[in-house]
Write a structure and sequence with these properties.
seven-stranded mixed sheet; single chain; binds S-adenosylmethionine; Rossmann fold; 194 residues; 6 helices
Length: 194
């Protein structure tokens, strides 16, 4: 097992939310088929697994990744250093919704607080260009978004209602051309900025 795969296995074992293998494979294929993507913003680092997977696709990929939790941000920096990506992946600790940058990104991967996806999208719209890909994970949320009977937890149901409303809004948003891949990972949408 590669050290990155081992890291992902360890993180999942410790209940740290890491993107599903199918989602990671999809994201990497997207980067292979879009060789023009060089600058990536990731919203939701956890301990650095998905950012390192993306950086592993090509040496010209540079990533800013945002993490709210100080301990996770620290762990991510250590993992990224240990795996040799610290010259191309930059971890910024703090609330993504308050992160200000003048940078313009070719891909914006949103994988943080599920109820805040609309907010992140509006916040980082000015850091995108025509053709930027916005990628969203967990839009199926273990199937609960489309079948609320799968959960009896009030806060989960509240959150999945917000995901559903965001997903519907995104699919009808004229600023993007969006494809929702329900069956991939935990439900991934790719929205191209028009
Ligand atoms: C699903 S995990 C990210 C997983 C990571 N992308 C991966 O696959 O390896 C979501 C992360 O977003 C972080 N997060 C939640 N709200 C945030 C916010 N407002 N700003 C930045 N990070 C946030 C959480 O602490 C958590 O570590």
């Amino acid at each position: 097992m590669s050290s990155l795969k081992q890291l992902e296995a360890d993180a999942r074992q410790d209940d740290i939310p890491v993107m599903k293998d199918g989602g990671i494979a999809f994201l990497k294929e997207l980067l292979v088929s879009h060789a023009e993507i060089q600058k990536i913003l990731e919203v939701g680092t956890a301990v650095g697994c998905s950012s390192m997977e993306m950086a592993s696709v090509r040496d010209d990929i540079v990533i800013d990744t945002l993490e709210l939790d100080p301990e996770r941000a620290l762990q991510a920096r250590q993992n990224i250093e240990a795996c040799g990506y610290s010259d191309r992946i930059f971890v910024h600790q703090g609330d993504a919704a308050e992160y200000i940058t003048m940078a313009c990104y070719d891909l914006i991967f949103i994988d943080a607080a599920k109820s805040q996806y609309h907010r992140y999208t509006e916040h980082f719209l000015e850091n995108s260009h025509v053709g930027t890909l916005f990628v969203y994970d967990n839009l199926a949320f273990h199937g609960i978004v489309d079948d609320p009977s799968l959960s009896h937890n009030r806060s989960t149901l509240q959150m999945t209602r917000k995901i559903k409303s965001f997903r519907d809004q995104l699919l009808n948003d004229g600023r993007f051309k969006t494809v929702f891949h329900e069956e991939i990972g935990d439900g991934i949408a790719v929205a191209i900025r028009l």
